[in-house]
Amino acid sequence: MVAGCGADNRLLERVAEVYDWLELQIHRSDNLSGVCKCCGDCCDFEAFDHRLFVTLPELTYLAAYLGAENIKAMPSGRCPYNIDGKCGVHEHRFAGCRIFCCSGDAAFQGELSEAVLARLKSICTEFRIPYRYTDLTTALNSRRFPW
Ligand code: SF4
Ligand code: SF4
């Protein structure tokens, strides 16, 4: 259960279920999911030439944890939640952060992304919120946030 801050707790629970399911798939396929050394390099999207896309339910989940007023903008190419190379929101990080691993199998990650997005889309339908799949920079810098 995630402590709510205005967001529908059922929505937060549904996102937590998706993340739990995702972690299970990753652990079940550790030969494909790769080994992350937690260096934080891929959280610097510009330097790593990497992009991270997120959905509204995921951002809502993070905002419920941090407090919407504490959602950070992203003025540089590095995720603002990466502090000294470490993820400051590890337990609440996005699906893409969980799936991507530089030493993992790209096809496995692609299939897992599709499966997770289908689940997140289903949450959008259930809770009547728009399905948006937005790069993290745009999402964090959006004046609409937390919508
Ligand atoms: S996925 Fe790779 S680049 Fe990203 S934190 Fe893990 S080891 Fe570092
Ligand atoms: S949320 Fe955490 S893991 Fe994801 S990009 Fe930001 S610092 Fe990296």
Describe this structure as you would to a colleague:
- The protein is mostly helical and 147 residues long.
- It has one domain (13-141).
- It contains seven helices and four strands, in the order H-H-H-E-H-E-E-H-H-E-H.
- It has helices at 9-28, 30-33, 45-48, 56-66, 95-99, 106-127, 136-141, and strands spanning 53-55, 82-83, 86-87, 133-135.
- A two-stranded antiparallel sheet has the order 1-4. A two-stranded antiparallel sheet has the order 2-3.
- Helix 1 packs antiparallel against helix 6 (106-127).
- The longest helix has 22 residues, at 106-127.
- The two termini are 23 Å apart.
Radius of gyration: 15 Å
What proportion of the residues form beta strands (DSSP E)?
Answer: 5-15%
The count of DSSP E runs of length 2 or more, i.e. the number of strands, is 4
- Number of DSSP helices? 7
Q: Percent helix among the residues?
A: 40-55%
What binds here, in terms of ligands, is: iron/sulfur cluster
Shape: globular
Mean pLDDT: 92
User: Spatial order of the strands in the main sheet?
Assistant: 1-4
Please indicate the count of domains.
Answer: 1
Q: Spans of 5+ residues with little confidence (pLDDT < 50)?
A: 1-5
Gap between N and C termini: 23 Å
The secondary structure category is mainly alpha
